[in-house]
Design brief:
about 350 residues; mainly beta; Jelly Rolls; 2 domains; eight-stranded antiparallel sheet; about 5% helix; about 40% strand
Length: about 350
């Protein structure tokens, strides 16, 4: 999960979830070589860090994956088991702090192995053709393939270091069994396909972080707006991973002590058909799901059926932060519904 939004980054960085994030469960299961820096480091959530005077037994300590200088034919690669199977919309191959030791080029392949890890018989598909890399920079590439992938294989040519590999996509979950069983799940969780589709302001953080698992690790691990100086309030629109009946709502202001919202309310609707920009205007008139509730600092607020006013299935929520402030996590617990025709 990226805590800061790079204003120059492509839209897929703001819209989708980094499913190569180790906090979501992604694991680098193999690398041809990671002599200088362990492959798992490139899946860390936060930006890469550089310590000028830090060394270990193998040499300079680097925050990322780094192979030794190749003295034979071929190139290095690493295989990552994604946090969940997903449709991939873009990647970021980040070489931050690798200046004289970055790979000149890289490419990415994907495969679908839902029941295990790939083997020698696995068929891989190229999803990012070889691209040139530069020193200490983000390298974004869009993906137009509509297939679902469970693993990716990052090739670097011929060797070197990658600080972070971020793979932005939308989790692909099989909801049919859950809908039939009536089990309660977090319909808004990013690992279940929940996604922030629009927001009024995100000055201090990425709105998608409120859908991440666990509690926030610090005040930067959440959605926080600027201080509002005009009438009205800030808002965030969430598309659930699957439409459902809402049983319980949790609003967590973890670490937000002097900057939490004064109040929060939630509106909801079942949005059918195209979800274009008009959803923002339409959301102002959605029925109330949770009337205004007073917030507390650094606190888990739980609301059950006694507070929830909507009774039908919903697909989208509008979270109103009144008038502004920071929210760490939002949980929308409910039962998946059958999609309306």
């Amino acid at each position: 999960m990226s805590h800061d939004i790079d204003p120059s980054a492509p839209e897929f960085v703001r819209r989708f979830v980094n499913i190569a994030d180790e906090r979501l469960g992604a694991i680098a299961i193999f690398a041809t070589d990671d002599f200088f820096a362990d492959r798992q480091r490139m899946l860390q959530s936060g930006p890469a860090i550089f310590y000028p005077d830090k060394y270990d037994d193998n040499g300079k300590w680097m925050d990322g994956w780094e192979s030794r200088r190749k003295r034979v034919e071929g190139h290095d690669y690493a295989i990552v088991r994604l946090a969940t199977s997903a449709r991939i919309y873009g990647v970021d191959i980040d070489t931050s702090h690798f200046t004289g030791n970055f790979p000149p080029a890289a490419s990415l392949e994907g495969c679908y192995c839902p029941d295990g890890d790939p083997d020698d018989a696995t068929r891989w598909t190229e999803i990012v053709a070889p691209i040139g890399l530069g020193a200490s920079a983000h390298h974004y590439a869009s993906v137009t393939d509509d297939a679902v992938y469970s693993h990716v294989r990052l090739h670097i040519y011929p060797d070197g270091g990658v600080a972070r590999l971020r793979v932005y996509g939308r989790p692909d979950r099989d909801w049919s069994n859950l809908a039939q069983s009536g089990s309660q799940v977090d319909l808004a969780s990013m690992i279940n396909g929940g996604i922030a589709v629009a927001w009024s302001n995100a000055h201090y953080g990425n709105p998608n972080v409120v859908l991440a698992p666990g509690r926030g690790i610090n005040m930067g691990d959440g959605w926080e707006t600027r201080r509002r100086r005009e009438p009205g309030n800030e808002w965030l629109i969430i598309e659930l991973g699957h439409p459902g009946m809402i049983d319980k709502i949790i609003v967590d202001t973890c670490h937000f002590k002097g900057n939490f919202p004064d109040r929060v309310s939630i509106q909801a609707a079942y949005v059918d058909g195209e979800k274009d920009k008009s959803i923002i205007a339409r959301s102002m008139f959605w029925p109330t799901l949770l009337p205004e509730q007073k917030m507390q600092a650094d606190h888990i607020h739980e609301y059950d059926a006694a507070h929830i006013t909507a009774t039908g299935p919903v697909s989208h929520l509008r979270i109103n932060s009144i008038p502004d402030g920071g929210i760490s996590r939002i949980r929308i617990l409910g039962k998946p519904a059958k999609r309306q025709a």
